[in-house]
Predict the structure.
Amino acid sequence: MTSLPGGSDNGGSATEPQPLVCARCGTQAKAPQPTWTCSVENGIRHYICDTCSRENLRAIEGRLDSAWW
C-alpha cells in the first residue's frame, strides 16, 4: 500500500517527503514523476509507474464509467 509522499503512514513527518513506490511492481521513483498514474481505491492513493500503467492500460480503461467515453 502506498500513500501521498510526505504522508504519515510510516511515521514520517510532513517535512520529510516519502519516495513514490509503484503499487504493482515496487519500483521506487528517484525524483518526482508527474507521469505516473494515481488511483484512489477505498480512500487510499496508489501510484503506478509508467511501465505498469502501459502494460495494464486496457484494465485501467475498463474500470472507467461509460460517462468518460
Observations:
- The mean pLDDT is 78.
- Residues 1-57 form one domain.
- Helices lie at 50-55, 57-62.
